Amino acid sequence: MEGAQFDRWNDKKKVINFEGSYPHFLQGQIWWAQLGQNIATEVTGKGKDFLRPVVVVQRVYGNACLAVPLTTIQRRGDYYFSFNDLKGSAQYALLAQVRYLDGKRLKYQRSDIKKDDLGRLQDALCALIKK
């Protein structure tokens, strides 16, 4: 089954690359991103579009970003950052899974993070890197 998921993701990734478009996105927005089928403990996307919510931490090169994947499953510890999005939903950022994403992977916007929470998330991310 897992091998089939990799094959489906490779087909989907080709479509994203050649037919995908760049949405207008900003720092602090939460998007459903097409993260794909990944290896071992790397966070993956779910469903037919391999989607996972991410928070845009920093826009890079105009059409790309540094993003942190999110979960709604409660997590605690140095590798996680908890906050409520602007819709009031509890979110847990998976700090150790931070990654560079091309904007074509961003499917549609889900919500936003409060400006002060974004600053605290960035501080937590920097602290993890310096650890």
Automatic annotation (TrEMBL):
Query: Under the GO molecular function aspect, what terms does this record hold?
Result: DNA binding
> What InterPro entries would the database entry show?
PemK-like, Plasmid_toxin/cell-grow_inhib
Q: What residue ranges are annotated as transmembrane?
A: none
- Gene3D superfamilies hit by this protein: 2.30.30.110
Q: Which domain of life is it from?
A: Bacteria
Which SUPFAM superfamilies does this one have? Cell growth inhibitor/plasmid maintenance toxic component
Q: Which Pfam families does the record cross-reference, listed alphabetically?
A: PemK_toxin (PF02452)
Give the protein's recorded name. 2,4-dihydroxyhept-2-ene-1,7-dioic acid aldolase
What organism is listed for this UniProt entry? Candidatus Uhrbacteria bacterium GW2011_GWA2_53_10
